[in-house]
Design goal:
single chain; 86 residues; alpha+beta; three-stranded antiparallel beta sheet; 4 helices; 3 strands; 12% strand; globular
C-alpha cells in the first residue's frame, strides 16, 4: 500500500517501456485521480493498494524496480533485510 500524500516521479524512465503493465497502471492511477501532478512530481491523492511491493515501487519510481530492495524503513533497512533478520 502506498499512502495518501506519498510522491512519485512525474515521468516514467526508459526502463518502464519494457514493462507495459507499469505504464498502464500509472496511466490508470492518473486517469482515476489517485495520482496527480503537483510541482514537478506526482502525489497520491488517496491510499493505493498494489499487488506486490515491486509493482508499487515501479509506479512510484517510474520504471523497473525490485520492491524488496527499494522499500526501506526510516533506519534504512530494506524489506529483504528485514526478512533475513526474522
Amino acid at each position: 500500500m502506498v499512502l495518501q500524500g506519498s510522491t512519485a516521479v512525474l515521468h516514467e524512465h526508459e526502463s518502464a517501456k519494457k514493462w507495459p503493465y507499469i505504464v498502464a497502471l500509472r496511466n490508470k492511477l492518473i486517469a482515476d485521480g489517485t495520482l496527480a501532478q503537483k510541482d514537478g512530481f506526482c502525489q497520491f491523492t488517496k491510499d493505493a493498494e498494489f499487488t506486490s511491493p515491486s509493482a508499487a515501487a515501479a509506479v512510484v519510481g517510474g520504471g523497473s524496480a525490485n520492491g524488496l530492495k527499494e522499500w526501506k524503513t526510516k533506519e534504512g533497512n530494506s524489506s529483504n533485510e528485514l526478512d533475513e533478520q526474522a
